[in-house]
Amino acid sequence: MRSQVGIIGAGPAGLFLAHLLHRAGIDAVILEHRSRAEVEEAVRAGVLEYWVVALMHELGLGERLAREGHFDDGISLQWDRERHHVDIRELTEGKRVTVYPQHEVLKDLIAAWIAQDGEIIFSVDDTKIRDLDTQHPAIDFRRDGTSEMQTLQCDYVVGADGFHGPARQAIPASHRTEYHKVYPFGWLGVLVNAPRSWHELIYANQAEGFALLSTRTPQLQRMYLQCRPDDDVAAWSDARIWEQLHSRLDTDGWTLTEGKIVQKGIVPLRSFVCEPMQCGRLFLAGDAAHIVPPTGAKGLNLAVADVWVLAHALDVKYRHNSRNEVDRYSTTCLRRVWKAERFSWYMTTMLHHNHAETPFERRIHRADLDLVRTSRAAAASLAENYVGLPFDAPAAGKA
Ligand code: FAD
Ligand code: DHB
């Protein structure tokens, strides 16, 4: 098997890359470890930056998003039982918050890729990358249910295989530096059959800990509670979840609408960056190269930003035989990555209760929140980061 680009992983990074390359006339094959159903059902991120929404429309993938997405003018921040509206639309010259879940994005991308005869192989095992320092790198893999290894020969390999995938390890340890931060808390996420309780997302910081109210469909809501990183879902009965959601989200005269809890799960929170994001003919994209805590809603968006840069760089390489952009891939991406790391860390530390922090640090976070309430410049900075920072030239959407 042969293709110009071999992509490992059918998450947001791998699938957006395949579509962007196709638009540039570059062929790609995607190898995915999970089954199609598993990819399409995993409940993860929810918020799309404004330019990701525009990109989906440009790629002809925006029809269902336009119909089923939630377009909010802003978000609410809440502390001391008071709710403050951050008018993102007004602060960013009309850009809006879009809630359209990651697995719905993936369904749209997979269906369109298959409809245009794009090659994607699900349920592969034993993926191994080799010959990265040659002109002809390859990916060995095994198809579901077979014992025979197959090989995908390519010009370039893209590791879009998430945090636990093998691609990052293919870069010799002596060639990479990894930056870590582990937070002493996790998120318990629940899906609830109920109507929307509030017209926009609420990020709440209460003494008991952080809570987030988000949405999925008019009848299905997404909610998160700060919990211990090693917490057991079994320790969270429905009654305990409602008691904590009410105590962290309710305000005088407003109460959260309850419903049947149909799913529960816990994720740990961490920050991570691998530098550089490339080695020879291997490029890392998305969670394979970096992780952000979810409080800033940046994980998915950052994955798409990486592959937008990569698709443009590969287009320049194939079209003009110039390696300039390809060689700069990691440097270009890391500028945006570190800004997203900063914003996600800021939102996380400002909004969570951290037992390890001193009273001084807690007061500082309170001052950060109050600054957003009282200073237009501080609110505008939060809004610009949340809705999606502008790209360095060339402009987004012109890959
Ligand atoms: P992924 O989506 O992880 O995709 C990688 C793909 O590679 C997977 O499909 C995987 O099966 C495949 N793969 C792995 N190994 C191999 C292999 N050896 N061979 C072939 N394929 C392989 N972000 C938020 O902003 N808000 C949230 O609420 C939120 N919740 C999250 C919950 C969970 C449980 C997780 C794990 C992440 C969450 N994130 C959240 C982060 C966000 O979903 C990710 O940043 C985003 O999915 C990154 O996309 P990606 O394509 O880089 O990686
Ligand atoms: C959702 C997740 C986030 O991490 C976030 O900051 C906002 C919304 C969500 O899953 O809806």
Task: Give the SSE map.
Layout: E1 2-8, H1 12-23, E2 28-31, H2 36-41, E3 47-48, H3 50-58, H4 63-68, E4 70-72, E5 75-79, E6 82-86, H5 88-91, E7 97-99, H6 102-115, E8 119-121, E9 125-130, E10 138-142, E11 149-159, E12 177-193, E13 201-206, E14 209-217, E15 220-227, H7 238-249, E16 260-275, E17 278-279, E18 282-284, E19 290-291, H8 299-320, H9 324-327, H10 329-351, H11 359-374, H12 376-387
Parallel strand pairs: 1-2, 1-11, 2-8, 5-13, 11-18
Antiparallel strand pairs: 3-7, 4-7, 5-6, 9-10, 10-11, 12-15, 12-16, 13-14, 14-15, 16-19, 17-18
This protein binds flavin-adenine dinucleotide and 3,4-dihydroxybenzoic acid.
Task: Describe, in plain words, how this protein is organized in 3D.
The protein is of the alpha+beta class. It is built from twelve helices and 19 strands. It has helices at 12-23, 36-41, 50-58, 63-68, 88-91, 102-115, 238-249, 299-320, 324-327, 329-351, 359-374, 376-387; strands spanning 2-8, 28-31, 47-48, 70-72, 75-79, 82-86, 97-99, 119-121, 125-130, 138-142, 149-159, 177-193, 201-206, 209-217, 220-227, 260-275, 278-279, 282-284, 290-291. The strands form three sheets. Strands 1, 2, 8, 9, 10, 11, 17 and 18 form an eight-stranded mixed β-sheet that branches. An eight-stranded mixed β-sheet has the order 6-5-13-14-15-12-16-19. Helix 1 (12-23) packs parallel to helix 6 (102-115) and helix 8 packs antiparallel against helix 10 (329-351). The longest helix has 23 residues, at 329-351. The two termini are 27 Å apart. Mean pLDDT is 96; it is low at 395-399. The site of flavin-adenine dinucleotide (FAD) has 31 residues, from helix 1 and helix 8.
